[in-house]
Amino acid sequence: MRFWSFWIRVQRFGRAWHLRGVKAFESVEGGQAVTSGFEDFYRAHRERAVELAWLLTHDGWIAEDIAQDAFISLFHVFGEVDNRAAYLRRCVVNGVYERTRRRQRERRRNALVIAGQPQSTDGPTGGVIDLVATLPIDQRTAVVLRYWAGLRDGEIADAMGIKPSSARSHLSRASTRLRKELL
Amino acid sequence: MNELNTHDPLNSIVGDALRADAERAPRLDGEWLGIDRMSMSPTAAHRPRRAVFASTVAAAFVLVAGLAAVAITNDNDDAPAAAPPVWVPVGTEFALTDLGPASVVFDGPVVEALARQVGVEGHPPLIITTSMAYSGNDTAVEQFCTRQVGGGACRADWGNSSWSSAITSSIDNRVADYDLWTLEGLPAGTAVVSYTDGDEQRWQRPVDGFVAFPNIVGNDEIVVAFDAVGNELGRFDSAEQEAAASDFTAPLLADLSRADYEQLGELTSDTMAGCLTDNGGTISNGNVATFPVDVDQVAVWNGCVTTVKLAVTKAVEAINPRFFNPATQQAENPDSPFDNQSD
Questions:
Q1: How far apart are the first and last CA of chain A?
Q2: Does residue B32 form part of some domain?
Q3: Chain Cα centroid distance, residue B143
Q4: Residue A125 clears pLDDT 80, i.e. is over it
Q5: Quick check: pTM over 0.90?
Q6: Which residues of chain B have pLDDT under 70?
Q7: Are B35 and A61 a contacting pair at CB < 8 A?
Q8: Taking the mean position of all CA atoms in its chain, how far away is CA A69?
Q9: Residue B6 in contact with partner chain A when CB distance is under 8 A
Q10: What letter does residue B331 receive in the DSSP assignment?
């Protein structure tokens, strides 16, 4: 459960309009042909999108929301994007970063330490996953995109919106840490 | 590392673990259903504006009719004395249920008179308490907490406002279909509170200075506290939130070891428990102190707050830690290790 104290500027979590309650789609700009193609794309990529968000957040509900947000973002530009899978991946990573930043701001602004924090039922399962979860968000994202998604440096950089050299740097630091702990 | 090296043992160790972990991810619905988003309002999902307008007009009509009836009644000197008018703001009532004193609290020990349970339909009970905690400062703080299923928020006694708002994580914690926007510390004499959030207009009678409304739009809440006849007693809106946030100054934090921090926390609760017991209280397993009926529990509590603060202040002074500003991470002492930390 999150609660914010008032005099510490309240950060909204964006739950006011919820994405799980999607309604039947009638007609939106782009027409039926685009919609039809989108549905196929959605069926083909929905699992990977949620899995990526899950691996980076370890929160089932947030992962669903991030993935839904990403598909909605893609929907609006579906006919204009060449590499739709890369675009979707970028949207998911952006969603994760946005959530992470919000939580960091909340933590900074909550000067008062509050006992009885939310009880997560979806936390890491231990071992390697626990270790990955302790990596900074940039390194964690790079690791997931490399070792789970099997992406190359340039693709990781595209997904994270950074330079390839920066992606290599994140990977290098993360790998050093993981080797030290695991090998 | 430029590309994925399939001979790298890290690839199989980390890759296998991540693939196994990904199996635990939730699954989206089978088909793409569209992009329309539905309101989380528990009672008025997608309520059209004209319905809001109609209900507003109807409520205004009822109000005017009621006032007219009162005026007519007052003109008739021979008529028996009418019941005082019941004033309510425009909008829909969103009622709370007073569930009485809480028997189990998360921030204890507390006195029964300052531990209340409030019910909201479809939600686990909200626990509102006044308690004490050690939060890393030069002494313990009195705090005013709102909690639901273990999580919660607390306002400390050093804050610059007597009100505090919060939003529950009911959705995230899967205990309800919508989050609640809560406000505690309402002005004395508040009989009814209006709540405007986008098109939603609701009102509520507070329980022990506390109100809770469905958090629908979540950006521009305007909450107004009224007395029984409609006089405004206080207003809580974004302007006040901004002003309070800009004026906010947190007390210095002590650079303590984890062991010291935990000991000071235990000292806080142990001293409070001892003080309450010494004053006739019996502390239950739920950390709530009950007293004989003739004991003024609030007076006992206030006296014990002073006792606890003195004890914790002495203990912190004995440790003699360095202090730093939590907002800037800058130490009061220039040799502090916090000097190089960035936010």
A1: 37
A2: no
A3: 11
A4: no
A5: no
A6: 1-7, 28-86, 150-151, 159-161, 173, 217-219, 238, 240-249, 326-343
A7: no
A8: 10
A9: no
A10: B
Cα B170 to Cα A1, A60, B173, B236, distances in angstroms: 7, 15, 5, 23
Burial class (CB in 10 A: 0-12, 13-18, 19+), B6: exposed
Which of the listed CATH numbers 3.30.460.10, 1.10.10.10, 3.40.50.1980, 3.50.50.60 matches domain A124-183?
1.10.10.10
CA distance B144 to B162: 10
Range ranked top by mean pLDDT from A16-30, A126-140, B66-80? A126-140
* Closest approach of A73 to chain B, Cα-based (Å): 10
Among B37, B155, B220, B328, most A C-beta atoms within 10 A, so best to mutate, is: B37
Average pLDDT for A22-35 = 32
Alpha-carbon distance of B89 to B195, in angstroms, equals 9
Q: Report the b/e string of A112-144 with b at 16+ CB within 10 A.
A: bebbbebeeebebeeebbebbbebebbbbbbbb
Cβ under 8 Å to A: B residues 49-108: 106-107
Contacts of A173 in chain B (CB under 8 A): none
Q: Supply the range of the domain harboring residue B247.
A: 91-330
Distance from CA of A119 to the nearest CA of B (A): 8
Q: Which of B10, B15, B26 sits opposite A179 (nearest CB)?
A: B10
What is the predicted ipTM? 0.71
- Residue B169 sits at the chain A interface (C-beta within 8 Å): yes
